[in-house]
Amino acid sequence: LSGEWLDPGTIASLLSTQARLLELAKSPLLEVPGSALSEPLMIGAGTTIEDCELGPNVVVGDGAVLRSARLRDAMVVAGARLEGVEHEGVVVTAGGQVGRR
User: Fold this and answer.
1) What predicted TM-score, i.e. pTM, was given to this entire model?
2) Dihedral Cα 96, 15, 9, 62, nearest 10 deg
3) What is the DSSP string of 16-58?
4) Residue 23, SS3?
5) Residue 75 burial by Cβ neighbours in a 10 Å radius (0-12, 13-18, 19+)
6) Are 49 and 34 in contact (CB under 8 A)?
7) What is the pLDDT of residue 97?
8) CB neighbour class for 3 (10 Å; exposed up to 12, middle 13-18, buried from 19)
9) How confident is the model over 16-41, as a mean pLDDT?
10) Beta strands at 58-60 and 41-43: parallel, antiparallel or unpaired
11) H/E stretch holding 12
12) What pLDDT, in 10s, does the model give residues 66-88?
């Protein structure tokens, strides 16, 4: 970003950087039947999303599977699987590990 320094060195600053980049990206909001999505939000290719509440400031990586998940200010990496969880301010790895800000 021209003239702006974003440092994703901690989980809190990573999520803050993510929020700023999502704000600038302004990708179109998808419609997912049975789920509620709030901008800004980015969902990768090949994801499965069922009965979820996602956003604002959520990125879901390619191939992730989310069922009955409630996420806000979160990053879910590609291939991660979440079911029946509610998190805010987290990064979720493919192994299901959750890091909090």
Assistant:
1) 0.83
2) 50
3) HHHHHHHHHH-PPPP--TT-EE-SSEEE-TT-EEES-EE-SSE
4) helix
5) buried
6) no
7) 65
8) exposed
9) 85
10) parallel
11) helix 11-25
12) 999 999 999 999 999 999 999 88
